[in-house]
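Recap from last week: sequence in, structure out.
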Amino acid sequence: MSQYKNEKTGKWYAIFRYRTYEGVNKQVKKSGFATKREAKEYEAEFVNKMSGSKDMTFRSLAELYLADCKPRHKATTYSSESYRINKYILPYFGDVPIKDITAGMIRTWQNEHLIPNFQKSTSVDICRNLNSILSYGVKYYGLSSNPAKIAGAVRYPNAIKETVIKYWTQEQFEDFMKHVKDDTYHLAYDILFWCGLRVGELCGLRICDIDFEKGVMQIVQNRVYVVGGTVTHSPKTATSRRTIGIPKRIQREMKRYIGKLYEPKSGDRLIQLQPTTVSWKFREMQKKYQVEPRIRLHDLRHSHASLLLNMGIPAKAIADRLGHANEIMLYRTYGHLYLEQREELVDKLNKL
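Predicted structure tokens:
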């Protein structure tokens, strides 16, 4: 017997020993259980988890999976994955032993919980997380097969849907900027619109990343919010690490701004704001000054791409500037703008 009652508090506790993967015997004590049964169930599940038994619950396997992912994934990737697993997967599968999860259960979950409540892209991400956990169980904890693979991908009726990209024209952007009096926010929004950076890239930009002689800046850091705070790491993808030219008007604004800083160091971040703060301020200013159409901060990046497309800049050059892997992503994202260009092309041919 390894479950005992604390006579003073009336609560039960479990005290037992287990063997680690290193072959070391350790003792565990866990208290605060309302009943002896709860204490016993905790001990059994803990031992199953530590021994890698197929009798462990999905929750235990998910905890092992996330612990394995944490040192291997970027903080942003881990944070997003952990959030989806805890919010959307564990409430349904958490207490089920992994050996009892079937493809039929997963299909029912997809049909009843995902398809009615989420966009396809979100459902795909959640299913990918479930599949990864169960694949991890197959590879490392003796699960005989992955029921998520048998269940297959989540399918949506009439899934073909064009995403409408919102953006501002140069005139609309400049009308908004008349309201921006703070130098920091003014420079931040100018860089986002005229250079096409992501907000994390903007907030990770250091003074030493800017070469005024060559008129370029190096995008080598990305500052992003994760659960628990803000972190700085490498750019989003390999192609996001890039060198881009800076318009002269933005160079002049940068120089003036740096000149006003108190003893700036080369390693200091140019914009001393958090990404969430920049985004919040952008929303609040649109609301305060009743700016229409309303757009997200990330849509300033779309606005930059739209500006370049309307100038007739080749797709390859735009993709390189934005940090896209290739032109295909550009076509997928801004297909509606290319449609406008095709219509304009036909109009010109009709006039010949």
